[in-house]
Amino acid sequence: MDPFLDFAEPVLDNLDLYATGLWTTLRICLWSAFLALSLGTVIAACRVSPVPPLRRFGSGWVLVLRNTPLTVVFFFVAFGLPEIGVNGEYYWFAVAALSLYTSSFVAEALRSGVNAVPAGQAEAARAIGLTFGQSLGQVILPQAFRTSVPPLVNVLIAMVKNSATAGFFGVAGDLSWVGDTLTSGRGYAVIPVLLGVVIGFWILVLPAGALLSVVERKVAVVR
Length: 223
Hints:
This protein is mainly alpha-helical. Helix content is 81%, strand content 0%.
């Protein structure tokens, strides 16, 4: 038998399982990216708000989550929420943990983008009668998003890789769960199984990185 085929047998015999894991991980990442971007935008707005309590809330959010290990965030969400009566599927707990953790990095990337917008833009917005919320949403944030594209790209790619943690906290069907099932449950060799998991993440990360790089270049031309 071909040595390569013998080595790759655990992957080739379970391509359907890997495909399911890839699809589940992709859905987790898409939901988490959407929620992290949305929540991170709100937190960034709090960080630059003229209202002191909102600024303190945004600063505290970023300080706590950025300096807490992702594994601990998963523990709090997956095992802490049920203790206070919040129950649900581990799939959504994983989405919540990834979204909360990533939102702090999104907020900081956007805050740096807001700080890069010339002060004259905000002054001009106030001069024509726009409120702080209107000037932030219509003038400042659109420019801040353009400036923040490179760090946001890195944040989202890191989030995809961080999603590997989900399978170890009860999420059934993602790529990490596939690797654990094939090695622990079915007795396959660890190295080829984990290489299959790594290839699965490459399939997610490399096209996403290429797509986001195209977006970054187009935004840079417009800017």
